[in-house]
Amino acid sequence: YRFSGYVRIPLQPMLADIEEHPHTSKVRIPNITAVTSA
């Protein structure tokens, strides 16, 4: 759980960036799921 807790913090700015630039969500979302599933 330490790893997941560490990952969640930087996700917030990334999600905010996705909202501002929806076209980047197609690239960032798979990366996020890959990191969280690892």
Structural summary, described in words:
There is one protein chain. The chain has 38 residues and is an all-alpha fold. The chain has one domain (2-37). Helices cover 84% and strands 0% of the residues. The protein is built from 2 helices and no strands. Helix 1 runs antiparallel to helix 2 (25-37). The chain is flat. The model has no long low-confidence stretch (mean pLDDT 57).
Give a brief description.
With 38 residues, the chain is mainly alpha-helical.
* Total domain units: 1
* Mean pLDDT across residues: 57
Low-confidence stretches: none
Summarize the helix and strand pattern as letters.
HH
What fraction of the residues are assigned to beta strands by DSSP? under 5%
Major β-sheet annotation: none
Specify the helix fraction band: over 70%
| Cα Rg | 10 Å
Number of helices: 2
Q: Which overall shape is indicated by the principal axes computed on the Cα atoms?
A: flat
Structural class: mainly alpha
N- to C-terminal distance: 11 Å
Counting DSSP E segments of at least 2 residues, the number of strands comes to 0
Secondary structure: elements and pairs:
Elements: H1 2-20, H2 25-37
Features:
single chain; 84% helix
